[in-house]
Structures are given as structure tokens and as C-alpha cells.
Amino acid sequence: MQTISSQIRPLAPEEDEKIILGTYLSHTERRDEIASRIATGDFLSKINRQIFRKLCKYQRHDATYPDAAALMERLRTQLRSHAGIVSYISVLIADFSDAARLDSAINTVLKLSAQRQLMNIGEQFKRNAAAGNAARLFCVMNEAAYLIDSMKKSGSQQTSALIEVKDLVLDEVDRIEKQCGKDAGMTGVSTGFTDIDDLTGGLRGSELVVLAGRPSMGKTTLALNIVLHSAVKNNVPTAIFFSTGSATLLVRRMLSALGRIDQSDIRTGALQEEDRLKLETIVSELSQAPLFISDAANVTISELSVRARALCREKGLGLLIIDDLEGLRIPGLTHGSEDHSRELLAALKILAKDLDIPVLALSRLNRSLERRSDKRPMLSDIYGSSAIERLADTILFLYRDEVYEEDSPAKGTAEIIIAKQANGPAGIRILAFKPEYALFMDYDDTYHHAIV
To answer: How far are the Cα atoms of 54, 75, 79, 301 from residue 82, in angstroms, in the given order?
Structure first.
């Protein structure tokens, strides 16, 4: 039996792809437009994909645009294994630089890319429906929803293309050289906590991090402290999906942490003059931060994925936080089941990888640990533990002994237990905790080393 794609001629817009590349190389003023409208995966030609991928990388990392000659030299070096690459690029510049036809070329490439993707998804629907694979069908629906959303906005999907290892090696050498001039231990988004960053290198792009704890431990507060450090101090575009309360509550906690103002005073409005002056300053800081909040309840993983991808495309996104993981729905799967956990984690892993950002998901722990004398969490205490243990790149537990023992000698502190780290060691780090300010801090003798 013929598949859908075998019944239709190859959708290969070779000339239009060359026009896009030729115009990019020759017209500096059009590069932002081209990079914002089309993605590497939209190119069908392998060599065109590789060239465009390199061009976009140069554009992201260079403060100024290189001229055509400089770009040609870089491409010659980076793609030196491709015979005739210099003459090919010369032809692109000489024969296909056509700003007047650029808009038409982009539209054609996007249209044919979407058609190819839709045909592929259609085949997946048919194959999984015939096999009765309901769980996999949902993942396909998720992919289709994102693709359709992209088409509506005249965007494109950053589809995954096979990349030769020599290109990856050169990229990694570039990354290592750039990292040599930076903080040697920091490879991701800083959490704001020195001891945690030293052990983890920060929250790394493309990775799924799970933060788990029992109620009242302070998971949301810790996540918000990380948000304040990333968005307010470091200007990293950050999004929070908060399904367990209102966005107003989050903002109140953030104001308390930023200003070191008692939460109860903010809630009641009983502020001293000193706190009022602080509030004016921090309101300005928070208002200017690239921070986005969704407090919609009963969100499906598909809806979250579409919104996050749209935000990344339109505003940029460097960190995504989900509170809470188990609250996300997957139609057709029983909430809390192993299938539910597995598909949920798989979808978030795909999202982190596609957007090349860290995804931090807050997770609950089951009640079984309450029956133990030592109530510090273990991997088996997580809901859907087998899926999370297998799929999460990093698993953190938050534990405060004073939740169980009011007069604990560890009162005012919290343990961050790094139970799993795919690219680093496990370990335990101590933070100070100031509940009246909704604030975790680096632990020291004076408790004065705060996150922001």
C-alpha cells in the first residue's frame, strides 16, 4: 500500500531555498527578518539546512553582522568537508541574491515544509490508530497542535534534522572556547544559590529538572526565588505555569522576597514608611523583568506546549517553570497512572530539547514517607517515580526538618537533596529559609547572603 507521501511528488523548493540563503548572505538588513520567519528544519536540501543553521548560529552569537566575505570564510572553515562549498556559496551570492523575491520564497518554503510535516503526522495518526496506541496518539496530537499553531502565526516548526557528528564537534569546540572566558562552573541558568550552582552548573538548556517535596516544604517559594534571580537579576526571559493558585499570590510572594517585606504586611497593607519606599523600587524592577505567568487551571500538556512555543517564538524564553507537574492533564489517560507520568515526562523532555531551555517541574511526593522515622525523600517517594527517575535529567528534593519537628536544631534551614544528576554528582546542599519573606538564601553564619 502506498503511503500519503509516496502518492505526492517531493515537495522540494530548491530555487526558493537558494534565494533565501543568497539574500541572507548579501543583504545584512534582511537577516533578522529571515531568521525570525523561517527555521532550519524548513529547508529540505541537506546542504541548505547546514548553511542556514550555521548562519543563524553566527547571528545569535555575534554583536555585529559579518559581511558576505567574512561569512563565506566562516562557512568554508565550518563546512570544509563538503566539496565545492566555496563555489556553491559564491553561486548563492551571485545568482540567487534577490530581495524582491524574498517574501515569496519564504512563503513557498514555509508552505511546502508545513505540507511535508502534515503528511508525516497524518501517516503517524493512521499508523497509531490502526495499532490502538492511544498514548502515542496523544503525543502525535500534541505535535499537530503545535504545527497548526505555527502555521496560523505564519511561523515554522524547528523540526529536527539529522546532523553530522563533525558539525556537532565543531560546535562543541566553539562552546568550550567561549566558556573559557566565563565562570568555569556555570553552564546553564543560575539558580541564584552559590552552593547549588557549584554542584550543578546551573539549570542547563534542553534538560528537564524535577523539584519534589511534601506540602509546606516551600517548593513554590524556592521556584519563585530562582525566577527572581533569572528574570530580575539576569534578565533571562522566564515563564511560570502556576495551576495551584492565582498569579496575584505569586506576585505578592515575589514582592515580599525582593523587598524583604513581611508577607503578612503586604497582604494587609500595614506597611511602614521604609517598606513603602522599598515597594516603590521593587515594583519598578519587577515590572521591567521579562517574566510571564499563566495561572490557568486544568491545562493539558498540549496547551502548555503550544503556549510555551508561541512565547519562545514571539518574546524569547530562557527558563520554563511548571507548578505543579501532576496537575497537567492528558486526555484519554488516567491521572496519576504510569502511562500518564511517562507521556507527560516525555512531552516535557521534547519541549525542553526543542526550545533548548531548562524546564523546571515541581512534583508532589506520596504519603508513604510519613510512616518512616527519617522523612527525607527518596526517588521511590515521587508520584510516577519510575518514569521520572528514567526521564528527568536532574531530580531535586526539598526537605525542611522543622516541618516535622518544631524545635528541630535545623530550624530556619532547608536541605536541597540532589538525588539524580545526569551530568554531574549527587549531593546535599543547605540553604537558609526566611518564611516571612518567602525567601531562601545561601547559607552562612549571618544569613545575609541573599539571592538577589
So the answer is: 14, 10, 6, 41
Beta strands in 124-213 (DSSP E): 208-213
- Residues 409 and 323: their CA atoms lie apart, in Å, by 30
Tell whether the model's pLDDT for residue 78 goes beyond 90: no
pLDDT (tens digit, 9 = 90+) per residue, 38-51?
888 889 888 888 88
Spell out the residues 6+ positions from residue 247 whose beta carbon is closer than 8 angstroms to its own: 293, 294, 295
Question: What is the end-to-end Cα distance of the chain in Å, rounded?
Answer: 62
Burial label, 197 (beta-carbon count in 10 A; 0-12, 13-18, 19+): buried
Query: Which residue is listed with cell 515569496?
Result: 104
Who has greater pLDDT, 72 or 219? 219
What are the φ and ψ backbone dihedral angles of 422, each rounded to 5 degrees?
-60, -30
Element containing residue 264 per DSSP (H, E): helix 263-268
pLDDT tens per residue, range 253-302: 999 999 999 988 988 888 889 989 988 888 888 999 999 999 988 888 88
Angle at 147 between CA 46 and CA 130, to 5 degrees: 95
Distances (CA, A) of 65 to 31, 55, 173, 315: 9, 10, 22, 22
Residue 452's pLDDT band, with cuts at 50, 70 and 90, is very low
